[in-house]
Amino acid sequence: MIELFNVNKSYSKGAVKAVDNLTLEIKKGEIFGFLGPNGAGKTTTIKMITGILNADSGWIKINGYDIKTDPINARMQFGYAPDNPDIYTKLRGIEYLNFMADVYQVPRETRKDRIVNMLKRFDLYEAAGDIIQSYSHGMRQKIVVIGALLHNPEVWILDEPLTGLDPKSAFILKEMMREHVKQGKTVFFSTHVLEVAEKLCDRLAIINKGKIMFCGDMDEIKRYTEQNQSLEKVFLEMTQI
Ligand SMILES: Nc1ncnc2c1ncn2[C@@H]1O[C@H](COP(=O)(O)OP(=O)(O)OP(=O)(O)O)[C@@H](O)[C@H]1O
Q1: Which of 20, 38, 54 to mutate to test the pocket of ligand 1 (most atoms within 8 A of CB)?
Q2: Rounded Cα distance, 38 and 98, in Å
Q3: Closest residue (by CA) to atom 16 of ligand 1?
Q4: Residues 111, 99: Cα–Cα separation, whole Å
Q5: What is the band of 219 on the pLDDT scale with cuts at 50, 70, 90?
Q6: Ligand 1 neighbour 191 (Cβ under 6 A)
Q7: Per-residue confidence at 69, pLDDT binned at 50, 70, 90?
Q8: Does residue 82 line the site of ligand 1, with CB under 6 A?
């Protein structure tokens, strides 16, 4: 579960208001999509949830742990895959995964099986001994996702996880998301791809200029509009592209 209450964030000494009084609750057992055009405030919000950035005001809790006042407990609740997978490129894939397993204290007895299973699931097993720098964008994205999920976190926070994945990898990740929430756990992810959000999410929020324009499920989207409009039309209306 993720809770945000009256969260604000500005950049450039207040000149750019990136997140504007945002209140949101992402429940256990749901895949929650975070939608918005470029520059809407999605990544800034995700960076505040994960404690990379501090909110100017408001509070954020993950499974009840405040990211500001109880950061270690809060961080142990989630796995986070950033939108830019170009990290630790000098390491071999397997070195990166072992490093992540060390950081999150994954026990030796379970880590090997877990690493091998996830590498095989994402078709990366053969490449695990290669330097990450030699990987394609999609391969880097997959290794970052595996690293984020190795400690079997209850809450998954994924920034644009499907961008750049081939159809098979995207299918596998979506399948994993569904399996995860079936166990009563939480998935929060941002996307530009409306079709994915429409098919995958239990609920979604549309953000524009730092403000939540809509939050609800697909039925609520349809009720919200007079006719049975598509998510695309609703999105375009709300974000006025
Ligand atoms: N470090 C920064 N300094 C100044 N302004 C910033 C900084 N980072 C983001 N911004 C601004 O804050 C706003 C929100 O940006 P953010 O990256 O959160 O949007 P986003 O929804 O993730 O966009 P995208 O879909 O393009 O990744 C934008 O106006 C952006 O230009």
Answers
A1: 38
A2: 34
A3: 41
A4: 11
A5: confident
A6: no
A7: very high
A8: no
**Which structure tokens are listed for 111?**
């880590």
* CB-count burial class (<10 Å; 0-12, 13-18, 19+) for 67: buried
Which residue, 149, 147, 152, 123, is CA-closest to 136?
123
CB of 18 closer than 6 A to ligand 1? yes
CB 52 within 8 A of CB 44: no
Q: Between β-strands 65-66 and 57-62, what pairing exists: parallel, antiparallel or unpaired?
A: antiparallel
Q: Which of 42, 49, 52, 189 to mutate to test the pocket of ligand 1 (most atoms within 8 A of CB)?
A: 42
If you take atom 24 of ligand 1, which residue's CA is the nearest one?
38
- How many whole angstroms from 39 Cα to the centroid of ligand 1? 5
Strand partners, 206: 35, 214
pTM: predicted TM-score of the whole model, two decimal places = 0.92
ipTM for the whole complex: 0.97
Strand arrangement of the beta sheet that strand 78-81 belongs to: 78-81, 155-159, 186-191, 31-35, 203-208, 211-216
* DSSP code for 209: T
**Nearest-CA neighbor of 160 among 186, 134, 188, 180?**
188
Question: Is the confidence at residue 241, as pLDDT, over 70?
Answer: no
* Domains parsed from the chain with CATH numbers: 2-239 (3.40.50.300)
For 49-152, strand residue ranges (E) read: 57-62, 65-66, 78-81
